[in-house]
Structures are given as structure tokens and as C-alpha cells.
Design a protein that fits this description.
Length: about 525
């Protein structure tokens, strides 16, 4: 490809320079002819205006004054000839003395009173010629002055100009060749020595790959401008219209997502929570032949997957709790069976009644104070699962929640995530491990969760609600730093408030205003 470009450019340069040289030479020759004619005109006009010439012409020039004056002009101005004739065309001066007194071969041209310019073939050869009338005192034409500059003299000057043109054209051609070589090398470097067919094939493959995958892909150059984006990236980032060539600052609002896309926040598989999605962001620099040409960012939508993982984790927790309960109830059945075998039927009846009342009292106590059945069931399940981790969750005695007007699914997500966060914070804490939750619906819904763990450090208050931030070790298959960020997002959408208090001891308070239009679950994801 480079050789073809060089050959084509050289051909164009040679053709252009040649045509330019020919055209310039033609224009220069025409200009030079005109210059010599005007020079001859100047000399002829000067001779015709000499008083001695007019006086000698009227007397027939017996003293040969005209011949001497003409010879002096030839010596000083260097024309090829100065020929002075009368109205009849009889020569009074001529470089060839034998022709003096002889008539012209052609008619006298100035009898019309005008000057005449042209190229004539005279007795001395072809010349650039000017003819000027000689006038008497009364203004009548009494003769003619003809001055000529031979073409041979003009051609010498033309040859000099032609050589100048040739030299200039050669310099232009040399510069063109050098520029073509530099451009060819530049193209070769930019295209990584690929031929046009290879570039076209790569473009087709890139388009097929870019728009045929489910992952979102965005490419940036070294200046931070978007070079490529697929439809999935447009969907996740909610961008429309022309994107390629625009900076990131005009496409994504300031925040963690933009920092990850721009590379301001490094790291692989970074989690970011948007208004509608949970995204995993990876940013990789692109280096070819040792040169940085930008970066590629991939985004994976993990919203549904993460929700399933969290649901599965909750199910595993319930299963572990049920296994523990199975062993506990098996032990109780063994006690009942032993009492029956010993014939102590009265004691067996009392024991069964006691454990039945204990199990029923917790559920009935929650249902008596927490009207939404989904929330009461969630609290009972969280209490049971936490107990297997030696964590005691207590619903405060003053907690009351009737059928509130806030969105139930949003409330379940907030309560579930705050309790999970508290239980996780107590994983390595010494005994006793205590968590309390307070619920109140006096004005909207108020939720307060406290624990006796280490709590949130004062310097991390502003960071703890940022998606992806966590001080806990990651659990297999599950990402950290999402629960509190999700709570913050839900509370913000509802125009509520979420307060985090510094440790020791975890303390979170969320408030949701009443929403008269709320009518049960919506599309919020319980995490």
C-alpha cells in the first residue's frame, strides 16, 4: 500500500509540476515579448520627439544628422536597429549603410497617426518592433521611427527564465518526493503496516464483535474522547445521539461511575450502583507496538445475578437455621419420648405445652406489633438465622408498625440490608453479640438498627454509603459494598433520609415519608 501511495503521489507531482512549468513558461514568454515591445516603444518615442530629427526630416537631412543620432541611440540603448523613414518610406538611418536612401519593403504603418507594436520579420531578422510617427510643428505626420530588438536577444533572456523555472520545478519535485516518503511512512506507522483489504476486514470483524456481544464496551483515546461504543453500553449508560468524539464529562454525570470509566479509580471488577443497575466495571489500557492508543472499558450488568446470589445466600441461611432447629426439635422429641416411656404423662404434657408457648410467643409478639405480614416474616427469619451465628436480634418493645403507606418492598429491602449489615459486623466480635431494631410509623416509617460491634469509624462516615466500599472480607460468589449503597439509593428515591453514626457500635437510622399512592411491592430488588 505504501509503494502504491508513493507512486501515485509522485505521478501526480510530476504531472502537476510539468504542466505548471509549461504554463509558466508560456506566460513568461508572452510577458517577455510585451516587455521588449514596450522597451522598443520607449526608444522609438524618444527618437521621434527629438527636435533635430523633425528639423532634419523637413530639410531632407543633407548633413546626415538623423543617421548620426540613430547611431548614438543604438550605442546607448542597445536596440538591434533604429530606422527613420519619411512618409514615402525612404530610409534616413539603418544599421546597414547600403540601405540608407532605399525605400521600405512594406508600407509606412504610422500614416494613420498611431503607434504600432508587434513582431516583424525585417532585413536584420525577426524582432520585437515598435513604430512611432514623427510629427511636424503643425502636428502632421512627416515620417516614422522604427525600433526593433532581435528575437535572439529575447530568447537568451527566455532561456535564463526557463532554466530558473526548471530549477524551481526540480526543487518542488524533490520536496514533493520527500513529503511523499514521510507521508507514506506516517501512514504505514498509523495503520501498523496493514494493507487496505486487511483494514477493511478488521473493521468488519470489529463491528461484528462489538455489536454481537452482551457486554457493554466503550473505547477511549489518550485524550479521553470516546472512539467506539456499542448498543449495550448506550443502554446501561443511558446515552443517546452522537457519542463518538465526545469527552466522558459530557456523557456521564460526576460520581463513582465516571471515575471508574476515566481511570481515576483503578482496580479490576469494580462494582458501581447506578439508578437502575448493578454494574461491574473493568478498564484496560490498550498498547500496540509499545505505543498507548487509549483504553477499553467493559461493563457487565450484574443486577439480576447479584439479586439471585443474595436470595440464594438467604436461602442457605434459612436452611442452616432449619437444620439447627431440626436438631433442637429432635432433642425435644427425645425428651418427650423418654417421659412417655417412663409413664410420666403429666410431665410430658407440661413440657410440650411449655415449648409450644415459647415458639408461638415470638411470632405472635411480632405480628401483634408489626402489621405487614411480609415484614414480620422477614424479622422472624432474620432473628432465627442470626441466632445460629450467636447473634441476638431484638425488636424494641416500643416498636409499632401498622399497615403503612410506604412501599412495602422498599421497606423490606431497607430492613433486610440493615440487619444483614449489623449481623455481618458482629462476625468476629466477642460475646454477647446484640442487634436491636426499632420501627415507628408515627410520621412515615422510621427504622433504627443498632449493634454492639466496632461500628463505623468517624473518618469513613462519608464513604460507607458509596457503592463498592466495604471493610469486610468478601464472601464467595458475593460482592461487598452494595447493601448500604442500595439502601441509600432507595431512601433517596423516596425523598427520605439515611443517617450513619460513628462507632463504637453500629447505628443506622432511615426515615421514609408517607406515600399515599404506595400500594405494595414494586420493582425494587430485595438484596
Amino acid at each position: 500500500m505504501t509503494a502504491q501511495i508513493l507512486i501515485w503521489m509522485l505521478s501526480i507531482l510530476v504531472l502537476t509540476v510539468t504542466m505548471g512549468g509549461v504554463l509558466f513558461t508560456m506566460i513568461s514568454n508572452q510577458s517577455l515579448d510585451r516587455q521588449y515591445q514596450l522597451r522598443a516603444l520607449g526608444i522609438a518615442a524618444s527618437v521621434a520627439q527629438m527636435p533635430q530629427i523633425g528639423a532634419a526630416m523637413e530639410t531632407g537631412d543633407p548633413q546626415h544628422t538623423i543617421e548620426r543620432l540613430a547611431a548614438g541611440v543604438i550605442d546607448s540603448a542597445q536596440p538591434a536597429y533604429v530606422v527613420v523613414t519619411d512618409r514615402a518610406g525612404i530610409r534616413y538611418s539603418h544599421p546597414n549603410a547600403a540601405l540608407i536612401g532605399q525605400p521600405l519593403e512594406e508600407p509606412v504603418a504610422v500614416l494613420d497617426g498611431q503607434t504600432h507594436l508587434g513582431v516583424n520579420a525585417g532585413s536584420l531578422g525577426t524582432s520585437a518592433n515598435a513604430k512611432v510617427p514623427i510629427r511636424s510643428a503643425d502636428g502632421s505626420v512627416i515620417g516614422q521611427v522604427s525600433v526593433g530588438i532581435l528575437i535572439t536577444t529575447e530568447q537568451g533572456d527566455q532561456i535564463q527564465e526557463v532554466w530558473l523555472i526548471v530549477g524551481f520545478s526540480a526543487a518542488v519535485l524533490a520536496l514533493g518526493v520527500l513529503g511523499s516518503l514521510v507521508l507514506a511512512r506516517r501512514i504505514k506507522r498509523v495503520t501498523f503496516d496493514l494493507e487496505p483489504a486487511e483494514i477493511a476486514s478488521l473493521l468488519q470483524e470489529r463491528e461484528a464483535l462489538l455489536h454481537g456481544i452482551r457486554e457493554a464496551v466503550i473505547g477511549f483515546d489518550d485524550d479521553g474522547l470516546v472512539t467506539v461504543i456499542n448498543e449495550e453500553a448506550r443502554r446501561l449508560l443511558k446515552v443517546e445521539g452522537t457519542v463518538v468524539g465526545r469527552p466522558l464529562t459530557g456523557l456521564v454525570p460526576a460520581g463513582r461511575l465516571r471515575d471508574l470509566l476515566s481511570g481515576a479509580l483503578p482496580g479490576a471488577d469494580q462494582v458501581v450502583l447506578t439508578a437502575d443497575s448493578l454494574l461491574v466495571v473493568n478498564r484496560m489500557p490498550v498498547v500496540l507496538s509499545g505505543r498507548s492508543i487509549g483504553s477499553v472499558v467493559t461493563l457487565r450488568d450484574r443486577t439480576e445475578t447479584e439479586a439471585l446470589i443474595r436470595d440464594l445466600h438467604s436461602v442457605h441461611g434459612l436452611m442452616d437455621a432449619m437444620r439447627a432447629l431440626e436438631h433442637e426439635y429432635a432433642n425435644r422429641l427425645h425428651v418427650v419420648a423418654g417421659l412417655l416411656e417412663m409413664g410420666d404423662h403429666s410431665q410430658a404434657r407440661n413440657y410440650v405445652s411449655q415449648i409450644s408457648d415459647t415458639s408461638r410467643s415470638l411470632g405472635e409478639g411480632l405480628r401483634g406489633r408489626i402489621a405487614p405480614p411480609e415484614l414480620a416474616a422477614l424479622l422472624l427469619a432474620k432473628i432465627t438465622v442470626a441466632a445460629e451465628q450467636d447473634v441476638l436480634i431484638t425488636v424494641t418493645e416500643d416498636s409499632r408498625l401498622d399497615q403503612s403507606t410506604v412501599n412495602h418492598q422498599a421497606l423490606l429491602t431497607i430492613v433486610g440490608n440493615l440487619l444483614d449489615n449489623a449481623v455481618d459486623a458482629l462476625a468476629n466480635a466477642p460475646m454477647p453479640r446484640l442487634v436491636t431494631i426499632q420501627l415507628d410509623d408515627a410520621d412515615g416509617v422510621f427504622v433504627a438498627v443498632r449493634d454492639n460491634g466496632p461500628g463505623v469509624p468517624a473518618h469513613s462516615i462519608d464513604r460507607v454509603l458509596v457503592d463498592g466500599y466495604s471493610t469486610k472480607a468478601a464472601r464467595p460468589g458475593m460482592r461487598r459494598g452494595i447493601g448500604l449503597a442500595l439502601v441509600s439509593r432507595i431512601v433517596g428515591r423516596a425523598a427520605g433520609t439515611l443517617d450513619v453514626f460513628p462507632g463504637p457500635g453500629g447505628h443506622f437510622e432511615a426515615w421514609l415519608p408517607a406515600d399515599p399512592q404506595a400500594s405494595g411491592p414494586n420493582d425494587e430488588d430485595t438484596q
